[in-house]
Design a protein that fits this description.
It is a single chain. The chain is mainly alpha-helical and 142 residues long. It has a single domain, classed as Glycoprotein, Type 4 Pilin (2-Layer Sandwich), CATH 3.30.700. It contains 2 helices and 3 strands; from the N terminus they run H-H-E-E-E. The longest helix has 52 residues.
């Protein structure tokens, strides 16, 4: 009578595989995380450029940039003032919504700005002024 031979992984084989996977994760993980941070910074730069274009179009129609109080929502919502409502040709953003920065926070906007007609910026991943890498400020005036 033949006995069925059962094949399975031994504990040692499983440990070797887990060690190899751990080493791969330790080598590849930091590189991937670094690329994600850089990608978010590039997205923020692109979004600021998009918002700058929308602000310029708003200025062409309205004769001025939105005030700090009106903020970026002026790009998607018509003004309350009837006289200005006739000039407004918006919404100036395709999705009819002002995007948040890649870290999920609203962009900062000030008009008149300290660096030009307006200032538009995000503080990066750490939401603090200054910083390097993913934490660096991304601004419309640089």
């Amino acid at each position: 009578m033949k006995t069925k031979e059962r094949r399975a992984f031994t504990l040692l084989e499983l440990l070797v595989v887990l060690i190899i996977l751990g080493l791969l994760a330790a080598l590849v993980g930091p590189r991937i995380v670094g690329k994600v941070g850089k990608a978010k910074s590039e997205i923020a730069k692109s979004q600021i450029a998009l918002l700058e274009s929308a602000l310029d179009q708003y200025r062409l129609d309205m004769g001025r940039y939105p005030t700090t109080e009106e903020g970026l929502k002026a790009l998607v919502e018509p003004p309350a003032n009837e006289e200005e409502k006739d000039k407004w040709q918006g919404p100036y953003l395709k999705k009819r919504k002002v995007p948040n920065d890649p870290w999920g926070r609203p962009y900062h906007y000030r008009s008149p700005g300290e660096h030009g007609d307006y200032d538009l910026w995000t503080y990066g991943a750490d939401n603090q002024p200054g910083g390097e890498g993913e934490n660096a400020d991304i601004t419309s005036w640089d």
